[in-house]
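Researcher: Going back to the complex we discussed earlier. I've cleaned up the inputs and rechecked each line, so this should be the final set. Can you rerun the prediction on the complete assembly and write out the structure?
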Amino acid sequence: MSERLTAKGRATRDRIVSTAATLMFERGVAGTSTEDVQAAAGVSTSQIYHYFRDKKALVRAVIAHQTEVVVGHQEAVLAALDSMASLRAWADAIVALQRRLECKGGCPIGSLGAEIAEHDADARADVVAGFDRWERAIRDGLHAMRDRGELRREADPDRLAIMLLATLQGALALTQLRRDTVLLRIALTEAIDHIESFTA
Amino acid sequence: MSERLTAKGRATRDRIVSTAATLMFERGVAGTSTEDVQAAAGVSTSQIYHYFRDKKALVRAVIAHQTEVVVGHQEAVLAALDSMASLRAWADAIVALQRRLECKGGCPIGSLGAEIAEHDADARADVVAGFDRWERAIRDGLHAMRDRGELRREADPDRLAIMLLATLQGALALTQLRRDTVLLRIALTEAIDHIESFTA
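Model: Rerun complete. Updated structure for the full complex:
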């Protein structure tokens, strides 16, 4: 559908999606009604239903939006995760962002995933695809490090990428609950120390 | 209140809580109404409101229940997490359990936490207390390993416990989304390998 939208139509659709993303980040999917989104985005009921058949369709658009924010817009950063220094700087940036957010909301993709995992198989597949992109980006950097000889041959970038992403996800969830970034810094530092143990 | 319950009253209350826990594990907190719990537990409206003022009170009882299931009932297992072999066996048991559950539901405490984190500060504090108990149990085992000289003095049990719990939480969330235990095994193995790198 989006192919056929006019520039104005696309702007309206984008406004609806980014408004929905903000509300769902703050209040969760269940706590955000289509009416809430409509009011906050300043669009009519017929407008919102013109772009999104139902709330499920809107949730999938929010997942796509958040995947772009978390993975798409950071592609340059993630592509440069190919040295110990850049991994440490990336962890610092994540901690700083959580501090700015006062540890609220958790991971924009992970929190959506936790909420829809048992309710909506299509949305679940979208979240998985988002995590796959993220994992691939981390993995590519670790492969580059191994190819350059910065990591020893016995390092397994695929496994290390899985561990790093899992640690990040769990640490973000615990950070959100504890409202404290201390554990986030510790968990990421330990995970990156593990990667560093494979340096040549 | 529970102090003053008769044996029959306690049995009814327990049935309501365990029914609510099962429903919320399967459908989430938002997807489970007090009426759903009432019908599934076979109790009247006045009975459920006799024990729980509102849904919030019921959610807090479910968090306490799930903390007992995940941490309390496993105290013996968690207390014995004081060797590399027991850490590996614990990881195997977690993977086997997820396989039996077909990767559905995620962590019983973590999933509740993700859903209520931004909605209910009291419930959030309860979830944090549950994670604190869990983290302490892991930490105690690692301290025992260091005290016995199985881990070198430079190992920091507090930091390693945080990393292991964060990795487990993230891996369980990703396992639930991917419906696949491969990444769970990899993430836990790598996290435990990191601990093993501190063995004497």
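Model: Worth noting: The domain at 66-196 of chain B is CATH 1.10.357.10 (Tetracycline Repressor; domain 2).
Researcher: Good, that matches what I expected from the previous run.
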